[in-house]
Please model this.
Amino acid sequence: MKKIYKIGIIGCGLIGNKRASSLGKRGKVYACADIDVNKAEKLAAKTGASAFQDWKKLINIEELDVVIVSTLHNMLAEITIACIRNGKHVLVEKPAAINYRELNKVIEIQKKYKNIKVRVGFNHRFHPAFIQAKKIINKNQLGDLMYIRGRYGHGGRLGYENEWRANPSISGGGELIDQGSHLIDLSRFFLGDFSEIRGHVSNFFWNMPVEDNGFMTLKTDSGKVAFLHASCTEWKNLFSFEIYGKKGKLDISGLGGSYGIEKITFYKMLKEMGPPQTKSWEYPLADNSWKVEMNEFYNDIDLNREPTASLGCAFENLKIINKLYLESDYDYSS
Model:
């Protein structure tokens, strides 16, 4: 029988609750903590867990196997380090730290605890459309990959400029580090490391000190390109991710909910060219990426393997973000 993991959740807001409901049969919430103790108590009441206001008390619970860190960005690295030192496996939400320098400290600590697994929560990799895309690419049905075009955006809400995401000392930046980090991660997932980073971030609409739009052109050593745009002035929520190969194109759209039904369409180029052969898959059910990602993490621990969405992946992600901020005179690190 496979081990049932005792899970601690630090940060009991929207994401913490999503994580709690996506543990599957192999995980059970054992303890939860939030600086707003009411949130912790509410989640504890639903899951039969113990509730704490002080996260340090939670990580000292000997029975805990795994801690999910779903706090604001400025606390992610500190808590992850403390969990590692206390012998707990960690799933930390993206971006895993407020900047790459802070994350480097986490990486240096983890090197001393080789048996402790740390996965970064890039759940978009586990949406069914992206799983299908990987299958198609791995079968070489798309041919050599050439470039990616990705867009991800929402329109904010009343008072958005007063939320924590608009405070660079808490968030580490604006839209680029928020939705943009998913676009960068997905592009690295398919194309590999980027050696040439170009782009610009700017604030067009929201009265806040962080950017509301990020534009990126990322290029690999072999010349593959990702052309990306993240925005919180997208007045109709949008997710669009197109992968172009020499034999065709994959068009992924929607993420469910306000982003529309998740769908992937494979446009296969014919020998005579002209109109392509077309096949589509739709995924109208609730988003299960969180649950699939968690199962992957259980397997990381069981098999003593390095998580695919590692601290190193998050480090490269944050380095790209930092370069774009510096080029646009948005230096949030000082």
